[in-house]
Amino acid sequence: MTALIDLPFRDLEQDRLAALHEYQLLDEPADDELSAVVRVASVVAGVTRATLNLIDENRQCSLTTVGYEGGTMPRDEGMCGVHFLEGGTIQIPDATLHPRYANHPQVDGRLGKVRFYASTSLVTPGGYVLGTLCVFDFVPRTLTDQQLARLEDLGAVLVGLFERRRQARLNAAMAAESERNRKFIDTVLETVEVGIAASDETGELTVLNRAARRWGGVELSNELPSRDRGRYRMFRPDGVTPLAEDETPLQRVLRENYLDGAEMILRTASDEYISVLASGRAMFADTGERIGAVVALTDITSDRVYRRRLEQAHTEVALREEQLQAAVVELERSNDELEGFAAAVSHDLVRPLAGAHGYLDLLDEAYGKHLDARAAKWVGGALRAVERMQQLVQALLSYARAGHAPCQPGEVDLNDVVEQVTADLRTLIESGQADVGVQGRLPVITGDHTLIRQLLQNLVDNAIKYRHPDRRPRIRISCSAEPDGWHIVVTDNGMGIPAEHRARIFDMFAQVDPESRKGHGIGLSTCLRIVERHGGTIELDDVPGGGTAVRLRMPLVLPG
């Protein structure tokens, strides 16, 4: 009564639905071939009604029918939905006598009065059931085994037509994708400024992009120069020795399978010589057979010109550095001699100046009351000139010692240094009514005690000398720790140093106001020398309300 032929299929509904939708047959009109197969099925079965049904999650869709108007109905209202997932071919001579179909709405009169029913499941090569090829009648009947076999054959034909239609769609999509890829590759090849050439396995050119055609003097994209035409346009890096046939990039790749960064000279069709870097790979078929080669030529002419200029510049810089080093050595020797000379001359001037000053003092004491106003003025002027000369000599001696004498590092208590400085400058501090003090407790740092004392003394001396005429001098010394050293600050409320003079104020003999004749322009130069000998820095800054802040940054450890 029932014939069931087992076929491989997978009863996985989600996968089955995915396979069904992949064929894109639902809700699409059936073509003539599908309709013809259904018509043949009705003839084979000897019935007047046949249909091609596809069944999705909720529906049974009749793509094409014979003997009645097809359409779409709910899946549970179609007779095919009862058994199609079991696969194979089935026939029911009288549905009213079948336990699974007797109460079906298509049998019991609610939707129809089907008696005879036969169908074969449409199973894909992957084992998914898409639907059925179905024949039925309203009177009982029985098909022979031969009729059932032909019905199965027709089902296989339908699946084959489905596959052909799907494959045709995939092929069309692949062809479209291939065309897009071809256009993309062609566009890339024609856009890049890298010469690209390809050949077959014999070395004959098959592809030449725009850059390579331009170098070869080829105008049309389908025009390819022969090997003989371009044979002697490539040279070794010397630009003179032509490359032999087997040394050309394509031939090397065909022989060695790859080429990485081979430099050579290319003579273009316009007789321009350019440096190129060649890289390439051989092309192989899936069988492993070599079918050609591809070579990329990158123009590195600008890079080589730049490299030569850079090498020339490096040579020139090295020569200048040599000359500069020699000049520095000579300058250091000259400075050492100058410092020694300054120290010797200054020392030799001390005694004569002291003698001159003493005689002028005696002259003033013995005869000052008897001198007229003009003579007294001359004696006073001579005393002041000698005193100024003594100050200058002392400043030169201090400058020479700061740069010439060996630096002897040790622990320096800045509190003790400030006390010694104020004691040394007591006369100047009292005459100027200056207020000199420290902010907080000053630390112990590493340095040359004598030089640090001279450094702070010069800064305090300068602050008092260049005080503001409208206020008492106020000098404060502070020191704070930083990650890499000490930050010593000496602030005053004096005249201040204009920003335009700060770049040169540490130069020898530099003065903001030479007319004031308050100094010799050596004190800050000496300070700079002392700071540099300690591996530190010195800079000037403004103070709110007027004045100058001298900032000293001294390292924790003195340079070797």
From TrEMBL:
The lineage of its organism: Bacteria, Bacillati, Actinomycetota, Actinomycetes, Micromonosporales. It catalyses: ATP + protein L-histidine = ADP + protein N-phospho-L-histidine. CDD domains: HATPase, HisKA. Its EC number is 2.7.13.3. Residues 181-257 form the PAS domain. Keywords: Kinase, Phosphoprotein, Transferase, Two-component regulatory system. Residues 344-558 form the Histidine kinase domain. This is histidine kinase. It is found in: Cell membrane. It is an enzyme of class 2 (transferase). The keyword Acyltransferase does not apply.
